[in-house]
Write a structure and sequence with these properties.
By secondary structure, the protein is of the alpha/beta class. The protein has two domains: 211 residues, Glycogen Phosphorylase B (Rossmann fold, 3-Layer(aba) Sandwich), CATH 3.40.50.2000; 168 residues, Rossmann fold (3-Layer(aba) Sandwich), CATH 3.40.50.2000. Helix content is 38%, strand content 15%. It contains 15 helices and 14 strands. An eight-stranded mixed β-sheet has the order 3-4-2-1-5-6-7-8, sandwiched between helices. A six-stranded parallel β-sheet has the order 11-10-9-12-13-14, sandwiched between helices. β3 and β4 form a beta hairpin. α3 crosses α5, α7 crosses α10 and α8 packs across α13. The C terminus is likely disordered. It binds uridine-5'-diphosphate (UDP).
Length: 430
């Protein structure tokens, strides 16, 4: 048996226990938490480092067996906004190093999520002489190529290009993202590892539609389209509203996600719905806790996704695991599933007309697949399997770059010392 690993997981800009479906919290949080839980269950020790957002937030919280969240201070009076965080990478790295040394820890590897964490992880990797593996989750070059929403900062694209070459390994959640990394940043395919996202099958499985509708107060007779995710131009909710206008009058749309009525994107979408004459047929729920989503999937007839870009797209998979057919644009894992004719996965070009035609086709077919068949077809996407793939990539990166015990204090995770604020690393001082 290989020895269990001690992993520093960096999720700096987004708290893994934040409100899913709001601005900066989504699939990455689900992915980070699920991987950490599985690794902890398998006996590995995982510390997830994230930005401290409120002064009264605890420095260290136990999350699950062998998994802790450690909040770190940026050294600024007010926590910096997501796009400014990279300017404080050295302070954040110093705060993590302070925690490590105060607690006499040694990490075998750093797994950074998103480019901001990648920059902090690069500094730590140099200091600790440990490998850094990175999952970018999305790529600035890809997001910018869709021309949806505001362009990503130039620093982000530059940093991703550098990190692609400095990281010991890159993890991607689907084949398409591997191709994107090679195309956008000339990444070395040999160093890219596939670690797909997964589904919690205990949570997401076929359930009774009528019971779910009663519970949520939805009409028994409506034909319900569902779409879940942060409200953003990139997610294509505008196309779904336009598609709704091309569907029969008994078709309704439930949009889950966003920051509620004050959310500017929700207001924009409501105006679009009013202009398209379908305002009365669209329900905005705001963000809904993950544990309550099974009822929404169960209540739906068809799940619709019209994103312009996804680096994976957990929601489509959750819908299929819940036994609901999906009409989708060719993005992320749905592109792969659609191409291999996965039961329940109907690929379109994402235009309103194509989405509406997809919905009609599924309705006319009266669903060739049973919910159980759709569910079973995505059985390979389990979190234990994803964690095993990530661990294999970790071990590969460690083998490639044997550590030289430069910072190997005694390894003891008992009673962590309290976090004492950022202390700049001498090696990082400019
Ligand atoms: N989610 C949620 N509540 C919401 C909206 C989204 O729990 O109101 C969850 C959703 O079920 C999925 C994740 O957030 O697990 C979104 O991941 P996805 O990969 O689809 O999108 P991303 O946020 O990464 O762009």
């Amino acid at each position: 048996m290989p020895k269990p690993l001690t992993i520093a997981m960096l999720s700096i800009h987004s708290s893994p226990v934040g409100n899913l479906g709001t601005r900066d919290t989504g699939g990455m949080s689900v992915y980070v938490l699920a991987l950490a839980h599985e690794m902890g269950r398998a006996g590995h020790e995982v510390d997830i480092f994230t930005l401290r957002r409120h002064p009264d937030e605890r420095a260290v919280s136990a999350l699950a067996s062998n998994v802790r969240i450690v909040t770190v201070d940026s050294g600024q009076p007010v926590p910096p906004a997501k796009n400014d965080l990279h300017r404080h990478a050295d302070d954040l790295a110093a705060a993590i190093e302070t925690f490590r040394s105060d607690n006499g820890l040694a990490y075998d590897l750093i797994h950074s999520h998103y480019w901001v964490s990648g920059q902090v992880g690069r500094l730590l990797g140099e200091r600790w002489k440990r490998p850094q593996v990175i999952t970018f989750h999305t790529l600035a070059a890809m997001k910018n190529s869709t021309r949806q929403g505001k362009p990503e900062p130039v620093e982000r694209q530059r940093a991703e290009r550098q990190l692609v070459h400095s990281a010991d390994a890159l993890l991607v959640a689907c084949q398409r993202e591997k191709e994107n990394l090679e195309k956008c940043y000339a990444a070395d395919p040999e160093r890219i590892n596939l670690v797909p996202g997964g589904v919690d099958f205990e949570r997401f499985h076929p359930q009774d539609r009528a019971a779910a509708r009663r519970r949520l107060g939805f009409d028994r007779k409506d034909f319900i389209l569902l779409s879940i995710g942060r409200l953003a131009a990139l997610k294509g909710q505008a196309q779904i509203i336009a598609a709704l206008a091309q569907c029969d009058d008994d078709v309704r749309l439930v949009l889950v996600g966003g920051d509620g009525p004050a959310d500017r994107e929700q207001q924009r979408l409501q105006q679009l719905a009013a202009r398209a004459g379908v305002a009365a047929r669209v329900v905005f729920t705001g963000s809904i806790p993950h544990r309550e989503l099974p009822a929404y999937y169960a209540a739906a007839d068809v799940y619709v996704q019209a994103s312009h870009y996804e680096s994976f797209g957990l929601v489509g998979l959750e819908a299929l695991a819940s036994g609901r057919p999906v009409v989708t644009s060719p993005v992320g894992i749905m592109a792969t599933l659609g191409q291999r004719q996965q039961p329940g996965c109907h690929l379109t070009d994402g235009s309103p007309a194509a989405l509406a035609a997809g919905v009609r086709a599924l309705r006319d077919d009266a669903f060739v697949w049973t919910p159980e068949e759709i569910h079973e077809a995505v059985g390979e996407f389990s979190w234990p399997r994803a964690a095993a793939a990530a661990l294999a990539a970790y071990r590969g990166a460690i083998r490639q770059r044997p550590s030289d015990a430069a910072c190997d204090p005694p390894h003891d995770r008992g009673s962590p010392a309290s976090h004492s604020g950022p202390r700049r690393m001498a090696a990082l001082d400019k």
